[in-house]
Task: structure prediction
Amino acid sequence: MKEKRIPLKIKEVIIRHLKMRLKNPFSTSFGTFHDKEFLLLEVKEEKGTIGWGESVAFDAPWYTEETLKTNWHMLEDFIIPLLLNKEIHHPDNITDLLKGIRKNNMAKSAIEGAIWDIYTQQTNQSLAQALGGKKDKIEVGISIGIQETIEKQIEVVDRAIKDGYKRIKVKIKPGRDIEVIRSLREHFPDVPLMADANSAYSLKDVKLLKQLDEFNLTMIEQPLAYDDIIDHAKLQKQIKTPICLDESINSLEDAKKAIELGSCGVINIKIGRVGGITEAKKIHDYCEEKNIPVWCGGMLESGIGRAHNIALTSLSNFVMPGDTAGSNHYWEQDIINPEVVVEDGCILVPQKVGIGYEPNIDIINQYTIATKIYR
Ligand code: OSB
Ligand code: MG
Result:
């Protein structure tokens, strides 16, 4: 990592509430999305540099407890007042500056991402380079929601394979699990396939979860409670399929404990869930040391959050394809130029200064339903 230190001072933050229609409704064990509503942050530094950050909190608390409204409250009443006009020596310090605020990781991460953007522009390097990224190309997978019928599920997976995605993840829930996976395996015997349960099961379902072992899944993601690592350790002892934790890992400390307990063989790192890029990198580095492979999760991000994910994925221990599909998988029109393009299942990591994509203000304004300025 190029450790350049230049003091930053935030002079203004604009919070925008955006609403973007998803090309395809996305169904998980906790419900169906038609639109993505989220907060976008535009942060202005004293010397005129502008950085962008995205909150990955949804409009309701089914994934974790945060929502875009709780994020707005935390940003307005606590986070922005703490950071405005303060000397910030390095984006790595944000976690420390905000440590008096418990949890609310997605709110913290939104502004931390914008500050990383500013820092990389002012130090004349790409975000990937600033993080110590080693790859100039990343492999990507795709996350496919629960479909109405098995036929439809097969059709959608077939499309994704033809589009070149390197790994297929499907959502499962009780009643839509073994049969779906079995028929996908029959149709696509060799494709790297995994399932994400978003906490839909408990230890009462061990027998059912054991049946998944026969389908050679690369992993099963977050089968048990969103805040559990104990039961996952018990489950891992009884199934062969590696468990990947998503919801349960909210910090480096969580990752250390889960690995020590044997709760997982893989970790899905999401910048928002762990409170920012700095913490995400720490988890990455620790997992690398412990030989635990990681991959970058997704939260149906717009181009801004996606750009941050791509830079992070350039780090060496992101050895499994992430959920960072191309812009055209989610949106008619993304809010960045150029859009994120997947070719042969890969995304080229931008070498340009900053996040490597230009926010498209006209399009951002079209999707904006509320705005507030803090200075
Ligand atoms: O559990 O990984 C998840 C989307 C919303 C909330 C949680 C999850 C997901 C995805 C989609 O799986 C990933 C993406 O394509 O952005
Ligand atoms: Mg998940």
Summary: The pocket of magnesium ion (ligand 2) is lined by residues 196, 198, 221-222, 246, 268, 297 (CB under 6 Å). The two ends are 32 Å apart (CA to CA).
